[in-house]
Amino acid sequence: MEKGKQLIGYLTVDAQENYFRGAALVTDSRGIPTDFRYTEPVRPTKLERILYGSALDIYLREDIILDNLLGAIETKPSLWLLEDAELIGPVQKISRTPAIAVEASARAPLDQSGQCEPTAEQGVFMLQADNISAPLRLAVSDDNISKISQFAQTLTSSAEGMELLEPFSRIQRALETVSESESK
Amino acid sequence: MPRLIAELGRKLGRIFLGRIVVRGLGELRRQSPLCVATHFRAAEVRPLRTEPRVRAAMFAQWKKTRAQSAGTLLGGYAIERFRVKRVSLGKAKKCEVRQYKLNIKRRAAPKHSMARINRAPVVRHNRLNFLKKAPKFEHATLLAFYSPIFQEKVKKSALDKASGNLLFWYDNERVKIGEKYYLLLLRVFGGKEPLKWLWIQAGKKVG
């Protein structure tokens, strides 16, 4: 690992009709993987469906998948990027690392790279991570709003060597191969 | 008849001798036992499944089994703290077990697989639409613009014609990273090859 290079973590929890599966990928600032973990599919039992009711989703995502997945990661990133904003709180609580929900937007590019602007929504910002893409929509927890410029700097720096959202699609492809090999 | 004679004797004794019969409580209870009836029905609870039978004392082996492995014995559930102090099933027939708090928690065993993620291609989208000033070429026009790519680290690449995305695989065993590059796809007019790939070092003027 080169000195001064930031590690970015990508975390996703895939909820299918009858099972849940989580995966975490840690990359350096060029998108090169340093750690990758995924869970076996977690199928809720009938007893769990009855006991947890509407809280089953939260129980499986947070108590089972995130808890085990984040505990297994050996290369700790400086920032977790998520697709689902609802996971920000649990991820920060378990990993003690800042987490941001990030997604592509259809807005016109901002004036310059690194520009970060607040939106009308509390804790939601638009970040122009590089000069040749649409701005990213970032959602942070209330206690991390003051650190948004620090996060923006980290993401802008990483965007020089990679497409920031691309690792999510790589995780998805990797999980597809896992599912294919399991179904054989 | 004996009962009638006894009754006659008691009555004569009372008339002529002033005697009465004194009975004890125990005798009274024996003669008329207390009977409590209820209209409630008693419910018997019986399990539908058959009685479990222990075929092998697997717990005896847990002393040397890691908690994570022991969890597999319970089908996805793990025991966080459990320890058998000493199990002796020999002549003494003693079984001494130290009791701990048993915390059973379901696990989603994470798996580590760098090979799987390394097999997944890195994707670059065509960013031509986001170029503020598209470069101009003589006898050629720009079709696609991919960035950033570390050219020296690329092991193989492919173009997904349906989406226009560039798929490539980095050689992650290669230590040297090299410089960042843009990769351009050009349509060439009048040449032998209609398409041409062009690498340009990032930061340099394109076009």
Report on this structure.
Chain A is α+β, with helices and mostly antiparallel strands and 184 residues long. Chain A has one domain (8-175). Chain A has helices at residues 46-52, 56-72, 88-95, 148-159, 166-183; strands spanning 8-15, 20-27, 33-39, 79-82, 99-104, 116-118, 124-127, 136-139. In chain A, strands 3-2-1-4-5-8-7-6 form an eight-stranded mixed β-sheet, with helices on both faces. In chain A, strand 6 (116-118) and strand 7 (124-127) form a beta hairpin. In chain A, helix 2 runs parallel beside helix 3. Chain A is globular, with a radius of gyration of 17 Å. Among the domains of chain B are: 58-106, no CATH class; 122-201, no CATH class. In chain B, 17% of the residues lie in helices and 28% in strands. Chain B has four helices and eleven strands. Chain B has helices at residues 2-17, 25-31, 67-72, 114-119, and strands at 77-79, 86-88, 94-96, 104-106, 110-112, 122-124, 140-150, 154-160, 165-170, 180-188, 195-201. In chain B, strand 2 and strand 3 (94-96) form a beta hairpin. Classes of the chains: A alpha+beta (184), B alpha+beta (207). The A-B interface holds A 22, 25, 30-33, 35-40, 42, 64-65, 68-69, 71-72, 109, 131-134, 160-163, 166, 169-171, 173-174, 177-178 and B 106-114, 116-125, 127, 130-132, 145, 147-148, 150, 153, 170, 172, 177, 180.
Question: In percent, how much strand structure appears in the residues of chain B?
Answer: 25-35%
Return the structural class of chain B: alpha+beta
Mean pLDDT of chain A comes to 91
Strand order of the largest sheet of chain B: 6-9-8
**Total E-strand runs of chain B:** 11
Number of helices of chain B: 4
Largest interface: A-B, 36 and 32 residues
CA(first)-CA(last) distance of chain A: 37 Å
| Cα shape of chain A | globular
- Shape type of chain B: rod-shaped
Distance between the termini of chain B: 137 Å
Largest sheet of chain A: 8 strands, mixed
**Based on DSSP secondary structure assignment, what is the total number of beta strands of chain A?**
8
Low-confidence stretches of chain A: none
